[in-house]
Amino acid sequence: MSDVKKVVLAYSGGLDTSVIVKWLQETYHCEVVTFTADIGQGEEVEPARTKAQALGVKEIYIEDLREEFVRDYVFPMFRANTIYEGEYLLGTSIARPLIAKRLIEIANETGADAISHGATGKGNDQVRFELGGYALKPGVKVIAPWREWDLTSREKLMAYCEEHDIPVDFSSKKKKSPYSMDANLLHISYEGGILEDPWAEAEEDMWRWSVSPEAAPETPTYVELTFDQGDIVAIDGQAMKPHEVLETLNKMGGDNGIGRLDIVENRYVGMKSRGCYETPGAPSCCAPTVRSSR
User: Fold this and answer.
1) Average pLDDT of the segment spanning 83-90
2) Is 198 found in the same domain as 80?
3) How much is the pLDDT for 171?
4) What pLDDT does residue 172 have?
5) Which entry of 180, 255, 273, 274 is annotated as an active-site residue?
6) What range does the domain containing 35 cover?
7) Based on the domain organization, do 94 and 217 belong to the same domain?
């Protein structure tokens, strides 16, 4: 492991990736560079800087990628009408190539010889991050701690934090969401908890962006969308940047009971997984019957 001198970590500032910083330092005896991306997850990303500094990180990247995310990834995906298994709008999937691209770019900028991520060994994200990295920098070393360490539970992670004085904003007394969640400007995904039982209906208070169809207004909301070469450039005549378009449509769609999805999907690694998704702005963005204004 001594061949790794510097590694760029996709860092959220949460429990898992904070532990990963210290684990990389101790296990690989290497310098860690952190990269935190704002892709509209709805949480402040700047606190990640203080946390990384407390862990001894010298090179810290925190970037607002919202516009690039929607312009160069989400909108092209919508133009292609890309829908997985006829239902899933690829909300988590489409964000990973952008993060992988920046991991490799930062690795090149800083002279790092490895990248790392906090994806587990069970899901698709490990594949997305790693194939993205290999495609852009063949031969780059990818370190996936969840496939190497023995910290296999939240309790073990918390014990590791206590042992190594890792400052994280988690405690056993703090109520934790029963769901595994991922959010960006395109969607929020929910897994785990009662959703592990396919017969269990998702609880109403799980949903964060949308009201149920039963609670939606009885009167319709009308919206006029202006398209240019397949992309929405204005809403009700007001010109907007790509990420502003999606933010606005998320609010309008969610208020009208649009965008909920509950499916059992096939993972690349051979597992089936039930997931619930909120993607309220997407149906308007990828409406195939709306023609370009040009």
Assistant:
1) 89
2) no
3) 47
4) 47
5) 180
6) 6-164
7) no
**What is the strand order of the sheet 260-266 is part of?**
180-183, 188-191, 272-278, 260-266
Q: Look up 12 and say whether it is catalytic.
A: no
Q: What is the per-residue pLDDT across 220-231, written as a single tens digit (0 to 9) for each?
A: 999 999 999 999
What average pLDDT does this structure show over 15-27?
95
pLDDT confidence of 175, banded at 50, 70, 90?
A: low
DSSP string of 50-94, one letter each residue:
HHHHHTT--EEEEEE-HHHHIIIIIHHHHHTT--BTTTB--TTTT
How many domains in the chain?
A: 2
Q: What type of residue is 7? A: V
Active site residue 284: no
Identify the three-state secondary structure at position 39. coil
What's the pTM? 0.91
Three-class DSSP category at 164: helix
Answer yes or no: do 81 and 20 share one domain. yes
133, 164, 195 - which closes a domain:
164
Same-domain status, 158 and 184: no
Does residue 115 share a domain with residue 211? Answer: no
Of 12, 38, 125, 260, which one is the catalytic site residue?
Answer: 125
228 is catalytic: no
Same domain, 135 and 233: no
pLDDT at 286: 61
Domain for residue 66, yes or no? yes
Q: Which of 118-122, 168-172, 193-197 has the lowest mean pLDDT?
A: 168-172
CA distances from 11 to 34, 35, 99 (A): 6, 5, 10
Q: Has 16 been annotated as catalytic?
A: yes
